[in-house]
Fold these 2 entries.
Entry 1:
Amino acid sequence: RKEVEQDPGPFNVPEGATVAFNCTYSNSASQSFFWYRQDCRKEPKLLMSVYSSGNEDGRFTAQLNRASQYISLLIRDSKLSDSATYLCVVADYQLIWGAGTKLIIKP
Amino acid sequence: DARVTQTPRHKVTEMGQEVTMRCQPILGHNTVFWYRQTMMQGLELLAYFRNRAPLDDSGMPKDRFSAEMPDATLATLKIQPSEPRDSAVYFCASGTGQRNTGELFFGEGSRLTVL
């Protein structure tokens, strides 16, 4: 089992819809969690940190479920510009990267 | 805007040649990471430096890869000799905290093709 697993997708979603995807992790001692966004042929960029209480940034909501060992990312009112690969990162004493979930928003 | 700068952006070389990639981290950042990304493997950590000291290079093939930080403004990743399986995008990233602090700033990457 991989340390951090994501559904590779692609998720094909119509513009304006809500989409959510999860990332599971194997180390229960993991301390910090993050979502990064990577556009095609570009570098990853931090989208948001994931706090125990959950957090929201505009149309994006991140949640942590420690009991089931997963984090989630919810995107509301999706835009064409949200099309990207979303990478989750889990940190214990090091950063462990998921392979990413590809999201395609269609007009 | 402060950013991580990587050179070269693109490199095509023949098998057996030496390849050197350079990275200028953001001024004031004390952690530097080298990652390799392929379609099949995703992001793989090759090397990690903190305050210029190499702390983890366990992900790096030691026989052909080497990573150094000759000073705080320059990190290098060298492949000698290069092989076709080294073809990938190599990212440098820098940050301000511990290795488990997730906010890293990435360079635009060096896209390497080894023929």
Entry 2:
Amino acid sequence: AQTVTQSQPEMSVQEAETVTLSCTYDTSESDYYLFWYKQPPSRQMILVIRQEAYKQQNATENRFSVNFQKAAKSFSLKISDSQLGDAAMYFCACFNYGQNFVFGPGTRLSVLP
Amino acid sequence: DSGVTQTPKHLITATGQRVTLRCSPRSGDLSVYWYQQSLDQGLQFLIQYYNGEERAKGNILERFSAQQFPDLHSELNLSSLELGDSALYFCASSVIWGQGYNEQFFGPGTRLTVL
């Protein structure tokens, strides 16, 4: 079965600093996609960044970037220049056609002014 | 705004009752997914439909059922409700299942409270 693990239930970062959220996954599929979703207090699920497993280049979206280590099955999210609006729950997710979407348990990120 | 709509926003009911949650996917999206998020927990995949047919099943209880109609909207039916069914229920839609990249667009969720 496909699993996604986020070992940090809570993290905090000072405003304008950089923080890295960890995610590891396990899948037997060779073709899959990885995602980070943000869930602010409004509870809306917002896609932050995505990575295709077949691409070696790490995805980047403005202040958000990932460190994708395929062999280690690791997919961490780096948030640079953290802003107060980044405070939220962050979920790592893995998709493949056999197992559909599997989400990790989440990391609650606090941003300190 | 993701383009996915869910009604109602909030639902309060009693144990043993039955409720129906409704989801309208983004225009053009054929796939609909249902998720359950209990308090301070991750999302649990319940079920997926593609163009009216069930495609994948996750941790969905037998008391729960879903369907997707010809106009592609979907309904999640929850019956014999228990206190533990209180949760946020998300619907998400995507363009195509099984081909290439599938980004899911999430609705705002329906918060179900069972008293």
